[in-house]
Design a protein that fits this description.
Keywords: Signal. By secondary structure, the protein is mainly β. About 10% of the residues lie in helices and about 50% in strands. The longest helix has 19 residues, at about 1-20.
Length: about 230
């Protein structure tokens, strides 16, 4: 949580600072921006990914996950439905890194597994906006995504006994979030916070069904938080 609070505070501070410029009787910027049938843009941001484990047996010792910040970059294609609804396609590239700590080992070489993932994501989202207030407009968004994990090593013949942690390449899930559209003189700037939750099991079990690394894992799913900054 401490790692998440800093970027959240930064995002809120930037949003508040920009909104303060439009507090009193603003001149409306980009008045026709939301009337176009199709709209295009791009986003930059960062993420913090975690894993959620389901165990076959409760042995009292969970796998530890040490998370770190990654980055997101992508494009936006938006189809206007009406004044309050937009359908958005947001393909992008995401990099993240996690360190897993497995219990029951005395050797650090056996206990730790570094998981580096590069995802190509294809989210299809519905954006639900409130009425525009001056030069800003709050919204919520949600939808489904599919992603391709380029660092999955799914087809590798080696497993954890050789130091190789394997994951499935294709991941499916959903994301939910909220944000604010801020209309500047030249473009629309939209900071948002997203929660991302995988629906499919991503673990490729070790060849040994009694493996001390994966033998007790019933399912492993990604969950994470994004902070994106969109420019349209």
């Amino acid at each position: 949580m401490k790692n998440i609070l800093l970027p959240l505070f930064l995002c809120l501070f930037l949003s508040t600072s920009v909104l303060a410029q439009f507090a009193k009787d603003p001149i409306l910027n980009l008045q026709n921006e939301d009337k176009k049938l199709l709209n295009w843009g791009y986003y930059l941001g960062f993420n913090q990914y975690d894993f959620q484990f389901e165990y076959q047996n409760d042995i009292g010792q969970d796998i530890l996950v040490d998370t770190s910040f990654g980055f997101n970059v992508g494009l936006i294609g938006e189809l206007r439905i009406n004044d309050f609804l937009d359908l958005r396609f947001e393909p992008g590239l995401l990099y993240t890194q996690r360190l897993l700590g497995f219990p029951g080992f005395t050797s650090e070489q056996d206990a730790l597994r570094e998981v580096r993932s590069t995802y190509i994501r294809f989210p299809l989202l519905l954006k639900v906006s409130a009425k525009r207030f001056g030069n800003w407009k709050p919204f919520i968004t949600g939808g489904l995504y599919t992603s391709l994990n380029l660092g999955a090593k799914e087809d590798s013949l080696d497993d954890n006994s050789s130091g190789e942690f394997r994951m499935k390449q294709n991941v499916y899930g959903y994301e939910l979030g909220f944000g604010i559209d801020i209309y500047t003189e030249y473009f629309k700037f939209s900071p948002s916070i997203r929660g991302v939750f995988a629906l499919t099991d991503e673990l490729v079990p070790d060849n040994d069904p009694n493996s001390p690394w994966t033998g007790n894992i019933n399912a492993m799913r990604t969950r994470g938080i994004f902070i994106n900054f969109t420019f349209e």
